[in-house]
């Protein structure tokens, strides 16, 4: 097997321009090496900031946004492409190496038809004539499972769905028969049920065409389905590099082991005891006369437990949270808190009612006022609800900071100086300061790296054990649900499709949707993808 | 070939060579272009054009130098945080800040600084510049330089008043609309759109035609018309913030409107607001001057810069530059304010979503 | 207000915009007429000035028709406007309409000449600024345009006259413009100086906005995609950036043409050009209300129509709207 790509000691850096100071050079990748044979797939995995996209783009001799390759070599078929002239680099791109971007929706030109964009590189590099290229494009559309392959190319990007665009971008990359394709997190932005189809389509296509691939993702379970080798990255350094069997089944490094174990925890279910803290009875909600979004939602949450509300985008889970908090009064039905009906609108609720019900958000960045210090953010509920000031307030703030495992030194920091996980912890402390009985968690870990998310979930579970607070946990991720829920409600298109204790909900017999949802979650085992595909029909008109 | 010309070209060529030797491409580009331009103009149009290029280049260099020194001086004097802020100012903004401060000083201490009185007749009509009358005399024989200083007082005072009034009205209305929402927002926005559909100058002229002529009316009209722009920006800024999660968190907490506006929203819009105020001020200067130029602004005997242009415009054809001085003063002040605003806006952009 | 008139989405959007435009013009006419009347100050008294005895005021009121209820007068005026009759000037009893059309023609000629030069130069300069992004030419263009938009029109105008007199000698003033320059190529030279002044003012605005619009597009993800396919820069600009830039540039151009409307007024006064701007300012000085209202109406109308064209133009060039799902 000949070596297609040899990366040796690759170093990449950038220049930061902090306002009012001299520009400083920072390193992003610190000497990474790997090999890739023809027709094989290597998975680059790591958390955000690991440098995986940057390395992938280096295979095209490209640096995005002021990033420069500062050292090392990238040998394509034995020749170092970093030494090429501009014209030489342009020759490789689109011909020998192609790129599939993370967001296909943004990556396509809204003013050009899809077919024209898909064949552009092929025709430009004189690989085929226009007619032949269009034929190949149609063939690839079919291989990738797109609807109506003969006419699909005549559409414009905004006329097709996100999943279809992702596949179209893959077709664009395959069209010129490249030796190597760089896939940059191609399924991250898609729904779980769509993700599985696109992943299978990609695997099928690159196997058919014997193309080599660099597959970049932060999801180890996904990369385990598609790669031959895996490289684990952290802060621009190689943590571990080996075959997919070795990494998954016998990881050497602690970091790798942590990444693998993130989906293995399961919370033991609590039997339904002390009665319902929160009850939703027959809730209907709408955003306007003809825009009904919730249909007869009836669920309840026992005291001191966690109810997970699961669904994909558009299922109505966030809307349910808005109804509970009073931001969207329901058109029918009522919300009962500890047996008492809650006034449907926010402005009609008492201060105490507001205090007992707190919320944490998906994006911790925007959930905090950037001009307030951590102490001010956490301290405000103390003053607002309990009238604490001065020394008393400061003591309580320190206490809360300890509870979230951060401690006093953080009190005078601003949100911009905190990491993603730290920001979310501060938001948790802010809600705890009000001593609530119910905490609504709106996808609080979805925007965080897997290991950081683990930390937050562990913290939430500890806090629940300590304070007895109940959680309404909204998420789209089944693994998180297993780790944290006592009872589960599955939502689809505004209706509750399945509701009950975790053991009942996650075990057969299933309704169709829950079945689909559960089967779409990649497991950390080799060959899972093939099994899942064999188990269900891949819809020809899937999106 | 005079000594001056010789020295001038020697300096430029030496400078260009040095820049090329030390591989400073930008400096080389500038210096060599000026050298070539001077030669070209000198050959084509003789001494006068050559002098013009030389003077322009010298003034620009002086401005850059002044800006550099001023910035260094401020960085030295100011306390920690302000000093770091000042360091990020480009040369243009530093120079602009210097000019604004000087003009403000002129305006405040007009009586003390001006050599002659505002209405004092000191010589013949349109005398050329001498040591005593730095810019010559105007159409009635008054000292132009003193008139400019007093004009600064009038122009800045009225423009500032109109700017502050417009800014306050606009901010108040826009924040109310954004925070209260609902039909209040709809009504205010529609009225604002309606007023925005009429060009400012036309609107002002129509209204001024119907109203009695005094300074309060003038300031009021300018403010009411201009606040439409402030409203549009203020509302956009406020709405941007109002939909942030931390504002929703405050609402869910049960915070009142007062807290939300002053403690959540306002601290986050400070820099763009200051920049906008700067723009309003610059616009007020230009607007007032245009109105006075057309005879509908400040009435004689008080004079602002626009009115002075009107008084002296007949001399232009006879190569009397008197009308150009107040015009240049307006231009310089407006440019400087715009350069400072540009700097502030760039800082906001990098702070808000600066991704590297 | 998203009513679909049974037409395609683009057509109904257009109908909506044009409808709003007309409503706006109507509302402005009401504002100009009724709103102005409601301001403090009495027209009759102002008209008479010193000799404002009560009987004289009452007489003038009747003569000028100011004693009738305002709605009647407004509707009458509006009706007249729609048929081209703008009433009579208070200053010289001449028909406002006749003067208006003659002067409008002159003003439009001046504006057109300015636009013909300003638009290509500014769009071109905007592209140059983008091509040399953050290098010296971009900085220079940025500073020069910043200076240009800060300079009042009268400064630029008199500067031009000054240098004109300087170069051609004193006494040979700028060309005297006849009562009604006809629309011909030969007359372009006549209006050279006032047009040049207008060009400077508008060019700076248009160039900055063009630059911003193009930069916005160049930062899009699909431009990066094209680069990663090995397409060279010129082709990227031609095939990918340009088609998407048409919509925002049309918007920019139309908005700035609307801005020309305002600039024209001052420029005409500077050069004593017999256009609508001069007519308007003279009327305001002597408080000749019918003329003021008529001119205000026409200026506002042109401004609104141009804004509406900006809207319509960018809708028509928006690929997402032209090819709906």
Can you give a write-up of this model?
The complex is a heterotrimer of chains A (543), B (356) and C (325). With 543 residues, chain A is of the alpha/beta class. Chain A has 21 helices and 20 strands. In chain A, helix 16 (420-433) packs parallel to helix 17 (450-467). The longest helix of chain A has 18 residues, at 192-209. Chain A is globular and about 75 Å long. Chain B is mostly helical and 356 residues long. Helices cover 77% and strands 0% of the residues of chain B. In chain B, helix 6 crosses helix 12 (270-293). The relative contact order of chain B is 0.09. Chain C is globular and about 85 Å long. Chain C starts with 8 loop residues before the first helix and ends with a helix. The A-B interface holds A 14, 16, 19-21, 65-66, 325-327, 346, 349, 351, 354-355, 358-359, 361, 363, 366-371, 380-381, 384, 430, 434 and B 84-88, 244-246, 248-249, 251-255, 263-264, 267-268, 347, 350-351, 355-356.
Question: Can you lay out the helices and strands and say which pair or pack?
Answer:
The complex is a heterotrimer of chains A (543), B (356) and C (325).
Chain A: E1 3-16, E2 24-37, E3 41-46, H1 52-58, E4 68-76, E5 79-80, H2 86-92, E6 97-100, H3 104-107, H4 114-124, H5 130-143, H6 149-152, H7 162-175, E7 180-184, H8 192-209, E8 212-217, H9 220-226, E9 229-234, E10 237-243, H10 244-249, H11 254-261, E11 276-286, E12 292-302, E13 306-310, H12 317-325, E14 332-337, E15 340-341, H13 351-356, E16 357-360, H14 374-386, H15 390-403, H16 420-433, E17 438-442, H17 450-467, E18 470-475, H18 478-484, E19 487-492, E20 495-501, H19 502-505, H20 512-519, H21 528-535
Parallel strand pairs in A: 3-8, 3-9, 6-7, 7-8, 13-18, 13-19, 16-17, 17-18
Antiparallel strand pairs in A: 1-2, 1-4, 4-5, 9-10, 11-12, 11-14, 14-15, 19-20
Chain B: H1 3-21, H2 25-77, H3 80-87, H4 91-108, H5 110-113, H6 144-180, H7 182-196, H8 200-210, H9 215-242, H10 245-253, H11 257-265, H12 270-293, H13 305-312, H14 324-353
Helix pairs in contact in B: 1-2, 2-3, 2-4, 4-6, 4-14, 6-7, 6-9, 6-12, 7-9, 8-9, 9-12, 12-13, 12-14, 13-14
Chain C: H1 9-37, H2 43-48, H3 54-64, H4 70-82, H5 96-131, H6 136-150, H7 153-168, H8 192-218, H9 221-228, H10 233-271, H11 276-286, H12 289-316, H13 319-322
């Amino acid at each position: 097997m000949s070596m297609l790509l040899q990366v040796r000691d690759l170093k990449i850096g950038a220049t930061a321009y902090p306002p009012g100071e001299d520009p400083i050079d920072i390193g992003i990748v610190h000497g990474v090496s790997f090999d890739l044979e023809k027709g094989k797939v290597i998975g680059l995995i790591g958390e955000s900031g690991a440098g995986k996209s940057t390395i992938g783009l280096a295979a095209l001799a490209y640096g995005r946004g002021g990033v420069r390759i500062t050292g090392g070599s990238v040998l394509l078929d034995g020749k170092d492409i970093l030494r090429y002239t501009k014209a030489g680099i342009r020759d490789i791109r689109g011909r020998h190496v192609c790129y599939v971007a993370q967001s296909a929706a943004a990556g396509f030109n809204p003013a050009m038809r899809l077919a024209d964009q898909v064949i552009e590189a092929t025709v430009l590099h004189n690989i085929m004539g226009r007619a032949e290229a269009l034929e190949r494009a149609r063939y690839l559309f079919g291989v990738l499972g797109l609807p109506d392959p003969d006419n699909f190319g005549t559409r414009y990007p905004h006329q097709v769905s996100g999943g279809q665009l992702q596949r179209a971008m893959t077709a664009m990359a395959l069209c010129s028969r490249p030796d190597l394709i760089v896939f940059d997190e191609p399924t991250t932005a898609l729904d779980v049920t769509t993700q599985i189809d696109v992943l299978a389509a990609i695997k099928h296509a690159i196997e058919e065409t014997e193309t080599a691939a660099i597959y970049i993702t932060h999801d180890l379970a996904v990369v385990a389905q598609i790669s031959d080798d895996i490289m684990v990255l952290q802060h621009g350094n190689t943590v571990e590099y080996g075959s997919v069997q070795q990494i998954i089944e016998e990881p050497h490094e602690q970091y790798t082991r942590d990444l693998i174990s993130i989906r293995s925890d399961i919370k033991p279910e609590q039997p339904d005891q002390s009665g319902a803290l929160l009850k939703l009875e027959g809730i209907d909600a709408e955003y306007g006369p003809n825009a009904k979004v919730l249909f007869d939602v009836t669920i309840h949450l026992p005291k001191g437990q966690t109810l997970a509300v699961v669904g994909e985008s558009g299922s109505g889970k966030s809307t349910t949270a808005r109804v509970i908090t009073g931001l969207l009064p329901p058109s029918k039905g009522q919300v009962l808190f500890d047996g008492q009906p809650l006034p449907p609108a926010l402005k009609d609720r008492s201060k105490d009612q507001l205090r007992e019900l707190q919320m944490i958000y998906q994006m911790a960045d925007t959930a905090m006022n950037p001009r307030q210090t951590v102490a001010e953010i956490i301290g405000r509920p103390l003053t607002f609800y309990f009238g604490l000031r001065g020394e008393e307030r400061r003591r309580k703030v320190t206490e809360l900071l300890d509870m979230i495992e951060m401690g006093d030194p953080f009190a005078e920091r601003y949100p911009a100086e905190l990491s993603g996980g730290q920001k979310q912890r501060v938001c948790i402390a802010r809600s705890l300061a009000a001593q609530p009985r119910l905490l609504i968690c709106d996808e609080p870990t979805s925007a965080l790296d897997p290991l950081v998310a683990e930390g937050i979930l562990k913290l939430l579970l500890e806090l629940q054990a300590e304070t007895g607070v109940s959680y309404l946990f909204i998420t789209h991720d089944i693994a998180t649900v297993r780790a944290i829920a006592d009872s589960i409600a599955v939502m689809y298109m505004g209706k509750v499709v399945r509701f009950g204790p975790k053991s009942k909900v996650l075990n057969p017999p299933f309704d169709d949707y829950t079945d689909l949802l559960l089967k779409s979650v990649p497991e950390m085992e080799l060959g899972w993808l093939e099994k899942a595909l064999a188990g269900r029909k891949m819809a020809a008109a899937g999106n | 070939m005079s000594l001056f010309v010789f020295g001038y070209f020697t300096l430029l060529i030496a400078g260009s060579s040095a820049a090329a030797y030390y591989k400073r491409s930008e400096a080389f580009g500038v210096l060599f272009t000026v050298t070539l331009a001077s030669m070209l103009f000198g050959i084509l149009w003789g001494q006068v054009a050559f002098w013009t290029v030389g003077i322009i280049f010298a003034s620009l260099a002086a401005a850059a130098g002044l800006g550099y020194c001023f910035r260094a001086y401020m960085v030295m004097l100011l306390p920690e945080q302000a000093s770091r802020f000042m360091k990020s100012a480009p040369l243009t903004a530093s120079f602009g800040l210097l000019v604004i401060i000087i003009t403000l000083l002129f305006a405040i201490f007009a009586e003390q600084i001006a050599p002659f009185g505002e209405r004092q007749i000191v010589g013949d009509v349109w005398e050329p510049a001498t040591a005593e009358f730095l810019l010559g005399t105007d159409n009635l024989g008054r000292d132009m330089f003193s008139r400019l200083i007093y004009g600064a007082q009038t122009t800045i005072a009225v423009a500032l008043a109109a700017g502050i009034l417009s800014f306050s009205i606009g901010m108040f209305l826009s924040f109310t609309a954004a925070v209260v929402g609902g039909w209040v927002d709809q009504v205010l926005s529609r009225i604002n759109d309606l007023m925005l559909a009429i060009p400012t100058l036309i609107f002002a002229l129509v209204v001024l035609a119907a109203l009695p002529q005094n300074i309060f009316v003038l300031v009021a009209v300018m403010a009411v018309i201009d606040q439409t722009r402030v409203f549009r920006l203020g509302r956009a800024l406020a709405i941007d913030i109002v939909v942030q999660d931390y504002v929703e968190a405050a609402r869910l907490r049960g915070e009142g409107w007062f807290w939300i506006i002053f403690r959540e929203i306002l601290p986050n819009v400070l820099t763009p607001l200051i920049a906008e105020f700067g723009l309003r001020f610059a616009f007020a200067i230009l607007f007032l001057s245009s109105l006075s130029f057309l005879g509908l602004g400040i009435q004689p005997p008080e004079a602002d810069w626009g009115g002075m242009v009107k008084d002296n415009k007949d001399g232009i054809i006879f190569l009397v530059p008197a009308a150009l001085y107040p015009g240049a003063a307006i231009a310089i002040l407006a440019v400087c304010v715009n350069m400072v605003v540009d700097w502030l806006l760039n800082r906001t952009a990098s702070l808000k979503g600066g991704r590297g | 207000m998203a009513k679909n008139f049974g037409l395609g989405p683009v057509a109904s959007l257009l109908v909506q915009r044009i409808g709003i435009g007309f409503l706006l013009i109507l509302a402005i006419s009401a504002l100009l007429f009724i709103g102005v009347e409601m301001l403090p100050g009495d027209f009759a008294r102002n008209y008479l000035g010193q000799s404002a005895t009560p009987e004289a005021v009452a007489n003038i009121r009747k003569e000028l028709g100011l004693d009738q209820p305002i709605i009647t007068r407004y509707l009458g005026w509006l009706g007249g406007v729609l048929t081209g009759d703008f009433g009579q000037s208070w200053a010289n009893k001449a028909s406002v309409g006749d003067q208006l059309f003659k002067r409008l023609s002159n003003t439009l000629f001046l504006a057109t000449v300015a636009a013909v030069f300003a638009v290509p130069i500014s769009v071109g300069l905007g592209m140059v600024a983008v091509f040399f992004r953050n290098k010296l030419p971009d900085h220079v263009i940025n500073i020069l345009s910043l200076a240009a938009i800060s300079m009042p029109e009268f400064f630029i105008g008199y500067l031009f006259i000054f240098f004109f007199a300087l170069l051609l000698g004193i006494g040979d003033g700028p060309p005297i413009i006849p009562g009604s320059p006809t629309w011909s190529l030969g007359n372009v030279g006549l209006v050279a100086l006032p047009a040049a002044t207008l060009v400077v003012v508008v060019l700076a605005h248009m160039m900055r906005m063009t630059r911003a619009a193009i930069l916005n597009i160049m930062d899009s993800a699909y431009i990066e995609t094209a680069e990663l396919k090995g397409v060279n820069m010129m082709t990227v600009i031609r095939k990918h950036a340009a088609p998407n830039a048409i919509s925002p540039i049309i918007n920019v151009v139309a908005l700035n043409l609307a801005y020309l409307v305002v600039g024209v007024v001052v420029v005409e006064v500077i050069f004593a050009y017999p256009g609508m701007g001069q007519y308007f300012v003279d009327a305001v000085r002597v408080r000749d209300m019918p003329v003021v209202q008529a001119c205000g109406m026409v200026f506002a109308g042109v401004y609104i129509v141009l804004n509406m064209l900006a809207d319509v133009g960018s809708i028509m060039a928006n690929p997402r709207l032209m090819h709906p799902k």
